WD40 repeat domain-containing protein
Amino acid sequence: MRSTCFLASGLLVVATLGLATVGRAQAPARAAAAVPDAFQAKAIVALSDADMVPSAYVDDKLGPPAGTDVLSVVRFDGRRVAPVSMQTLPISNSVTGPPAAVATTPDGRYAITIETRGPRTSSSAGGTLTGLPNGRLISVVDLADLRHPRVVQQVLGPRRAVGVSVSADGTLVALAVHPAGDGTAAPLWLYRFGRGRLSGGAAVPIPDWTAGDELVTAVFHPSRPLLALTNKTKNQLLLASVQAVGAGWQLARWGNAVAIESGNLLTCFSPDGRFVFANGGPASPAPNERQHGWVLSVRLDAHPGTAAEPTHELVSRAPTGYIPEGLAVSPDGRLLVTTNLEQTFQPVGSAQRGRYASLTLLAIDPASGALTSAGDFAFDGMLPESAVFDASSRRLAVANFGHLDDLLASGSLDFWRVVGAPTGPEPLRLVKTAYALPLQRGVHTLSVVR
């Protein structure tokens, strides 16, 4: 890829200055200049689940395996479109939960992964999704040397964790645990984290929680020990502060519960911590009708100082493409993207199977939290569950699970650019670049180190 970029530069010089100056295209200063679509980040970490094809969600058939589960560490230098290196580590993981199976620490030093379902037991195309065991493995990966990442700890945690999040100070790790595993009575687990080691894992009761309800996400606030907890059974968003008590912790409700719509898949905070965004939508579309998902914007402590307890309010709702599983907010807090599965998970031969996935781009009003849609942008993709912005807030990497026409083909990281602005002569939109990085099939959760 680097030689291709160099050739393009060389042709530009020839056309402008003539053949006598072609050699100048090789000058070090020119080679170091950033190209327009360079991804401004240190690294992306990506999980790939090799055990199943997307249609297993519909027909329960795992389909042909594709190698082994891996964590890919993709390193960038901020000057090239393509990464400067990529390393893979064999780490068991699963696409079966929401795209929250890996989190990086705030300093970018470590990645922590969970295993929602265990690996398949056969190398054949047989087997069922419901037959996969509950996973328990938690892995810690040291990213200090991005050219040589290494697993530094693996522990057995609660069965069937579905999400992992790291506190703003990097000292706590939260797991959301499914009620079909060890999350029936207390679906939130907390661990201490320090010097690359997890310790003290324990279930922590959630105030006013009903045993058996599904906790689908548990996400730390970007600057304080506060968790956003999503009850998928009751369609509620809860905020709770984490308080140390002796050698353990307790949660204290922080303000009111917020009613959200059904089908929530992921939740995230705005970078300044003033808003929480939640996505979701219907899991079963009506026949011959294109269904939409949604994103909600919730303002935290909407009326400070007016009551004894904070009051959280729903301030905006915007439509998305169908099944908006991934949710990413730009570092400047002004853009939001959902990755929409559409009908790409339907079995081969199904009349419902769609050719295209999509992304939805929304503008965020940083003062009010209001969401304004810039549209849905279709692309040739399959089960795109996750996306991350770079540091510029103008580039986007999207997880593309695999290939619709070849179930054994690799997945990819697809790269997009943001064009235009919410107000101005050029409309706000997303444009897919020509570059995509092949990854192990089954890529599903991304985390970025900026």
About this structure: The longest helix spans residues 2-17. The two ends are 22 Å apart (CA to CA).
